[in-house]
UniProtKB/TrEMBL annotation:
SUPFAM superfamilies: Phosphoglycerate mutase-like (SSF53254). InterPro entries: His_Pase_superF_clade-1 (IPR013078), His_PPase_superfam (IPR029033). It comes from the Bacteria. This is Alpha-ribazole phosphatase. It holds the Pfam family His_Phos_1.
Amino acid sequence: MMPLYLLRHGPTEASAKGAPLGRLDLPVAPEGQARWPRVREELLALGIGRVLTSDLGRARDHALDLGLPCLVLPGLSEQAFGEWEARPWDQVEGAEAFFRDPARGVPPGGESFLACGARALLALQGALEGEGATLVLAHGGPLRAILAHYIGLPATRALDLSWQPFGLTRVDVYAPDRGALRFHNRLAG
């Protein structure tokens, strides 16, 4: 069994406005930066042996700051929202059609949630090893797909999982496709 911790990066200015960030490399907002030392302390107390993170700074910078062995995996980056990135949903033309099937919908110039999830799972499973506690510090889309996979939730329902900034989840992984959820979306720090 491997304890797998999943942490969403801290809040950003755009996410606070209800806008999808996607691949934009915006930093964590000042209030998130101020809270990071408490989050960091809590994470280090968990006995985590290594960190897997996205290549986007809002996740990567905090992952590297933990001072643990860290592997940066571009496959863990957020879903690409193309032309819709950083635009509040109420200002996105065509969002109504997208939300009828958000798992399969593809924003102009972006990717579907299902493609993002498949990419994230491939990256994660290629990097997992041993039984030591591992932290994945990434984004809401990839983390939802990873959690859904391990608890047997269909990928098309993964978007039903709420995940707040600095929300921490633990899944005990028993097999490549089986895990037990210990807690979900607990606010860290």
